[in-house]
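It would be a great kindness if you could assist me with a short task in structural biology. The matter concerns a single protein, recorded as an amino acid sequence and a row of backbone structure tokens. Kindly check, if you would, that the fold set down in the tokens agrees with what the sequence suggests. Thank you for your consideration; the sequence and its tokens are set out here:
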Amino acid sequence: MKTAQRIRVRGIVQGVGFRPFIFRLAKRLQLGGWVCNGESGVEIHVEGEAAVIQSFIQEIRTSPPPSAQVTEMEIGDAAVEGLADFQIRESMRKDRPTVHIPADLAVCPSCLAELFDPADRRFLYSYSNCTECGPRYTVIQRLPYDRPHTTMRAWALCPSCSAEYHEPTDRRFHAQPIACPECGPHYYLLSDGRELREEKKAIEQAAELLRAGRIMAVKGLGGYHLACDAENAQAVWTLRERKRRREKPFALMAKDLETARTLVELSAEEEELLLSPARPIVLARAKRSLEGVAPDIADLGVMLPYTPLHHLLFHFGAPPVLVMTSGNRSGEPIVYRDEEAVTALQGIADAWLIGERPIARRVDDSVVRVSAFGPAVIRRARGYAPLPVTRLPGDRPVLALGADLKNTITLAVNGQAIVSQHLGDLEQYEAFTAFEETIRDLLAMYEVPLSETVVAHDLHPGYRSSQFAGGLESCETVAVQHHRAHVAAVLAERNALDKRVIGVAFDGTGYGDDGAIWGGELFVGSVAAGLERRGHLRYAVLPGGDAAARIPLQAMAGFFADQPEAAADIGRRLELPERFFTALKLVEKQLRTFPTTSVGRLFDAAAALLGYTGAITYEGQAAIWLEHLARSGPLKKVYPFPWDGEELDYRPLLRAVAEDRLQGEDAAAIARSFHRSVAEGVFRSVLALGEAHGIDTVVLSGGVFQNALLLADLQALFAESEMQVWTNKAVPPNDGGISLGQAALAAVRHDKF
């Protein structure tokens, strides 16, 4: 007896070959019905024998396409319509979309094999893709995900591509961005004011320019890269000079996994990340030094080719290791429009390899690393964004604006939390423009009027994101304290908003409840019931305010504020620059000094004590320098870093560091002891708070917890206890995760009140 079922599948089910998979499965099982894209996912009507339909449903759950992710299935009885055949139908539109927008995927092995097969009609074609790979988020202009709603709409399918698109047994069946050399876009080279339009010759010439030490602007999935030969020191330093990027490390693209293995030490987990469809930049321990690529840093950020174009460049003889850094001037967002790239990168690039397919929105490369607590995202962008990371309560949409540094936004709609790609630092005009564009983009994509949202923003009144929220007269706004948002982000990821935890939020800066610059906070509670501050780093002062974040010597002066004579003596004996003594005078006279509990600045102070006496040129530079110094030193002792039930007192710790430094102890060994001492101070304070409040889980979040050595020490300590440790996984521990925490706290607040 025939029965019928209506099935709604939610998750990552559009743009990943899900409808063709359903079609082929139904055909194989001889079921009738149809499948189509809907606002909330994929809609299926299926008719046949009940037992066969159950097999159909089970196979959807257990064997979806490789890039699909089924998070929810609604199954209900339906009327039998007498459908003997199974069809893919046009997309349904009834209400606002709730489907997950798919992320961009690296070129798959099948497309790669065709790319280098002389007998294939896509031989050496730069825009080859199928249902299992290629652009998604960077070409979608609106939902549902169909070709007319993408930046490929201008290219009509040729008869051969059309036949593939409509053939159920073909892997390009209903693959929206497909094309071929006959009907699709191409790459061309712009060099010395002349255009070379023949694609193969253009890519060959680009590879030749890279071999000659020239700097290329290369269009990728989400924007332009600046590329040069990573083993050509002159080319690398020229790129630094032109880009005005003095010391911040460059990302690398290795020709293949074997080449990557020669650059960095790779665990099985790191290799899996490198080869994943997201193809992120993976931070790993360097095996060899490449001059100018990562000055004073023992790690390299490496990725593998993820578009056909990248593979073609290496095929035509590009150097096997390329610097592949964001196409921008330092501090600005990646450029993604062709005309913008030609003008903005003038004076940096020697030539441009330009693709004709427009990019719908700018998306940087993602950055990940594997720490003692497993893989963690450091920058969430291509390959991950804008996939939802969790579900949040409440019926009203929440728009969370994030922080001003490493900005992301989060839109919580219909229960799902969608975290945007990394947008940059909002003090930069172009980054703020990208911030506004992304807000409009996500709201439009999900058809959410801004006036219907609850807007969550940082507590800091001076943040540009907070000022943006203040200008939204028609919206309800919620101010969320920065460090509570860090902790909430971890709990939101875990879908554990009711879980009581000890929350440890360590970073460089954040506006506190008392108006001070926080950054070393210990909370007790949950997202649902509230996070109460129950401890913190002892207050120090920052002479010069924000300047102390750029000049570690000033931070050092502020952390010795209670012992100015000893500080002056240390400065003289270490022959510190005059800037340190000027900062001491500001502290002594209490001029332009601000209270702080920042652990980030504590690390800067330790770095200054151990020899980092210049200004930083990128965020976290001194702390990164200190970590890499510590990795080369033995652990000889642990310094005191006492917890009195309310404060972690840094004074004995810094005094011990200074004393060993003055006695001529090895700086690397001192740095190693400093890291272990901080870890033990955190460990003791968390155990004490856990015992006092009956809590068995600690959350670690904030930019300080990007420090792999600190995390390794904490993992070793907590492994000997009953305390569970939760860290960020899907969103960054730095300010890139703030918007998710804001959204969680705002959603709970709205749901509760």
Q: What stands out?
A: The longest strand covers residues 2-12. The chain has 23 helices and 30 strands. The two ends are 51 Å apart (CA to CA).
